[in-house]
Amino acid sequence: MTYTSPNPETAIAALGDPTRRAIVERLRHGALPVGELAHGLTVSRPAVSQHLKVLSDTGLLEVMPQGTRRVYALAPEGVAALRRYLDALWDDALTAFAAEARRRTSPPDTETPE
Amino acid sequence: MTYTSPNPETAIAALGDPTRRAIVERLRHGALPVGELAHGLTVSRPAVSQHLKVLSDTGLLEVMPQGTRRVYALAPEGVAALRRYLDALWDDALTAFAAEARRRTSPPDTETPE
DNA sequence: ACTTACGGTAAGTTATGACTTACACAAGCC
DNA sequence: GGCTTGTGTAAGTCATAACTTACCGTAAGT
User: Core-most of A17, A62, B5, B90, by most CB within 10 Å?
Assistant: First the structure.
């Protein structure tokens, strides 16, 4: 069971780091081994390895060992979890926004009922 | 023009902090002034103010001054920008994933042409 | 006008985590 | 069996940023 899907908050935290976002960007168009991933980034290869561990732990990446290489790829399920989280947040934001607008337009004295 | 819509990467970076995610969570169900927002969090009110500034700068929040209070709310457009970013990432992830699967099933010698 | 409530800003401290070098380990090649 | 390639891990350094206290401005109430 390579299937992790932890809470998406962890994934967001992982994407908070710019180097990790760069790694994800480099994986958008296809899987890559660690070496190629590091070549093109400004940090050392061990640093990339550490970032890959973090990203894998959140379920955003998955590994496919091929001989001595370890090929990393975006994990669709991880990205999907993030999408679901943001969709729900979006939904709540719209609802709250609409409620706020309603409170401000229709009832003229429902200002601050406290 | 209160309309910001910066690159969503900044918003993701902002959400990397757990306290800021807590703030966003507290705003899911409706707008709140700074004081109420801070009450319920483990950090001091000035800390909350600083986080609110970061979140507002990324376009995730907007302010509605009401007298001496400043009421913060989720900015639908900011959340939407994040959603679009992740949707595109999701799309690329699926495409890359499908391509990978194809490479592994159909052509038996398209392994690593290099 | 004075006072109180509310919240943003400055300055300084501290903790977190991103980075480096050095090392260890597994898989293929001679 | 060594040698090379590819990568993960350990240990330690350093920079970033999150937090605190103290202070200041502004809006409302009396």
Answer: A62
Residue A54 falls within a domain, yes or no? yes
| B68 in contact with A, Cβ within 8 Å | no
A99 touches chain B (CB under 8 A): yes
Q: How many domains does chain A have?
A: 1
ipTM, interface predicted TM-score of the complex:
0.84
Containing structural domain, residue A52? 8-105
In a domain, A110, yes or no: no
What is the rounded CA–CA span in Å between residue A10 and residue A40?
26
Q: How far apart are CA B80 and CA B3, in angstroms?
A: 13
Prediction pTM value: 0.85
Instruction: Note the pLDDT tens digit of each residue in B62-78.
Output: 999 999 999 999 999 99
